[in-house]
Write a structure and sequence with these properties.
Blueprint (H helix, E strand, L loop, with lengths): L5 H31 L6 H12 L3 E2 H8 L3 H13 L3 E6 L2 E9 L1 H21 L5 H27 L1
Antiparallel strand pairs: 1-3, 2-3
Length: 158
């Protein structure tokens, strides 16, 4: 790719800035919605819960891979969820070095309420956007993710 100059450079910077702002503000809005409903979960904890509602009993490494976080960050995240009685860890019967994370009764009982709050937030965030516009945005963001993964691999191989 050649050096970016002029209008093209500005438009590409604007896109990456908008992606970052949308992510930060969307995460903040969802977190505030949970807080307002007196549900003590963060945006990252929401991701963990969704993964566990889809398949209970996952290794911590799965969360690290999905959330793109290191092992220490995931351990801290799961520790906080354990303190809030949302998850519990048990030794992995097939790999004694790891633990599996399971939902607690409290987390299972919160599922419908949390999903309703998240669905409402998503509808508010995407209000006024036609489905064809959403599909176009998804295609663009998939291309960005692919480029990020390629670039990340390139800069970490050296």
């Amino acid at each position: 790719m050649s050096n970016l100059m002029g209008e093209e450079a500005e438009q590409r910077r604007r896109l990456t800035k908008m992606i970052a702002q949308t992510s930060r503000l969307g995460n903040y809005a969802l977190g505030r919605a949970f807080e307002k409903a007196e549900i003590p979960i963060s945006r990252e904890q929401w991701d963990v819960l969704v993964m566990l509602w889809e398949k209970d009993g996952r290794a911590q490494q799965e969360f690290a891979n999905f959330l793109l976080k290191n092992r220490a960050s995931i351990t801290s995240l799961i520790d906080n969820m354990e303190k809030n009685n949302l998850v519990t860890r048990v030794p992995n019967p097939t790999d004694k070095r790891s633990k599996l994370v399971y939902l607690t009764r409290r987390a299972r009982d919160l599922k419908d309420k949390v999903l309703n709050i998240a669905e409402h937030a998503i509808l508010e965030i995407t209000d006024g956007i036609d489905l064809d516009e959403i599909e176009s945005a998804v295609i663009i963001l998939q291309k960005c993710l692919s480029n990020i993964n390629r670039y990340h691999k390139q800069i970490t191989e050296d």
